[in-house]
Amino acid sequence: MCWKKMSDIAKNLEVSKDVIKYHKKFIDKNEIMYENGQVFISDNGVDLIKKRLKKSKYNDSFEKYTRLKLKSIEDELKLIGESITHTQTDLGLLEQIRQELNEDFLSWYCQKEGIIVWADWRWKFVRLNDLLDFLKQK
What we know:
The protein has helices at 6-13, 17-24, 43-53, 62-100, 128-137; strands spanning 3-5, 32-35, 38-42. By secondary structure, it is mainly α. It has a three-stranded antiparallel sheet. Strand 2 (32-35) and strand 3 form a beta hairpin. Helix 1 (6-13) packs across helix 2. The longest helix is centred in the middle third of the chain and has 39 residues, at 62-100. The protein is rod-shaped. The relative contact order is 0.08.
């Protein structure tokens, strides 16, 4: 009888070791051997685990698809995190600009093309880089 470590079984079946641990409790104790703190499962036990893993409606590409989908979600979350960081930086710059202008929005204007004057505490279009250039000239 051939015995395999749980980690090897998990690699071969392309599942986590926790999945193997979960299914281990459903196989006969004669199919499990403990040696030097490691758990070994017989070939018959591995076959039983395989049967429990593969359902009749199971698609072989399901795990691959799921992993790819999780990877794309992780990538999207990373991009969102970077976007939030940039937004926080931009908000910090805008706050700095507000403090530079001493809250006197109506008195500030610029003749440079592409920047329109504030009116009634609102502004129609200001490119942030142009505004920063203007403040540097002050």
